[in-house]
Amino acid sequence: MRVEIWSDIACPWCYVGKARFERALRDFPHRDRVEVVHRSFELDPGRAKGDVEPVITMLTRKYGMSEEQARAGEDRLGAQAAAEGLEYRTRGRDHGSTFDMHRLLHLAKERGRQEALLDLLYRANFAEERSVFGDDERLVELAVAAGLDADEARAVLADPAAYADEVRADEREAAGLGARGVPFFVLDRAYGVSGAQPVEVFAQALARAWGERSPLEPVPGGDADVCGPDGCAVPGH
Amino acid sequence: MRVEIWSDIACPWCYVGKARFERALRDFPHRDRVEVVHRSFELDPGRAKGDVEPVITMLTRKYGMSEEQARAGEDRLGAQAAAEGLEYRTRGRDHGSTFDMHRLLHLAKERGRQEALLDLLYRANFAEERSVFGDDERLVELAVAAGLDADEARAVLADPAAYADEVRADEREAAGLGARGVPFFVLDRAYGVSGAQPVEVFAQALARAWGERSPLEPVPGGDADVCGPDGCAVPGH
User: Fold this and answer.
1) Which of A215, A228, A230 sits opposite B178 (nearest CB)?
2) In this structure, is the dihedral angle defined by the CA atoms of residues A222, A224, A225 and A227, taken in order, positive or negative?
3) Is B228's CB within 8 Å of A17's CB?
4) A1 compared with A139, residue with greater pLDDT
5) What is the pTM of this model?
6) Bigger pLDDT: A233 vs B78
7) How far is the C-alpha of B79 from the C-alpha of B170, rounded, in Å?
8) What ipTM was estimated for this complex?
9) Which residue ranges traverse the bilayer (chains A, B) (predicted)?
10) For A213, which DSSP code?
11) Do A182 and B2 touch (CB under 8 A)?
12) Domain range summary for chain B, segments of one domain joined by +
């Protein structure tokens, strides 16, 4: 079974939802047969690379909250994260473009390091003091910590076209699948789970998707030209 | 869309079928949205690593063919391969265990080099004089040519447990999906195509799987706790 997870590094519910999904997966009896793929989704796709501001400022400016409301929201998100054993700095975090991080995550996917890099990016953004925005060398450090080559990561960051199509393709696909927000979980392209649901919902979704996998529909064309336990069918043989 | 292809390096129809599928994919309008994953299948899973014999000998011994029949079969397979522009040595090839090659292909998958290594293994087995069986250094050379690290490839070959579970899991999955031989193509876990079908059958299968992708079934649990274009839903907010 394959689970695809659309998420954004700047999305607190993605950070929390990933931990909840992983708890469900840990107890899923067929966990060894589950492959997880992370896909790109930007909450703020129009934001320029250099446009960085404090999260609290962004919340008041973009959503018309008072500073008090914004801080209270961060406090509640911090409590939800803490309940999952995750660190969350409720004050002093920045907001900015995550496009470059998604491009790096596609490089990491090709190198088998996607999961490691995503975890490090989340941790850096939500738990560590140094900002992940507007600081390419910070991203290179995280890429190296995830097992990527520093020069390769730097080359991707220096070329805005590198893996840009892959990020956009993930985002178009999310829209096509009906995702209105993230995190968005898709199990075997058959079941969708929206949001940082409770662990039990993920557990049910895994069990259901596993149990209800439908048999393949054979495409007409017959069984000709296969090799099997009885050898290879050869025409005119 | 994701296409999974179960195949074996020792399977002539897999070699031919891959070329036919790729011709169909090249003309498929949504080819940029198609991800291809190669999965392991051994035609001869019980064969020991050191047990190598000429293909013609294996065919006569295992399937009771006369040498003449075996050679005629190889000639016909060679003609089918040639029709796809593939080189195929109809005489002098060896048969042996492909387990180590599948283990290397799983390493290559993790490093984003699976396709490159599979093509090189096919070419080495079907078109080149030097045997790919019973010669670890030959496999290391091919792994390096595919972009893998020589020491990493050597370490995998030296440890029979490395990626063994991944090979076995692929094979169990093939059985679960109803594959009786290879190549076996699975499109989005919804459609199955068995054998080295004509290009047109692959084209139809791609079009059909693309067009008939069913909408996701939402798993109950509501839409709570998502971040979207209107910000992040925060409980009690």
Assistant:
1) A215
2) positive
3) no
4) A139
5) 0.76
6) B78
7) 30
8) 0.78
9) none
10) P
11) no
12) 2-232
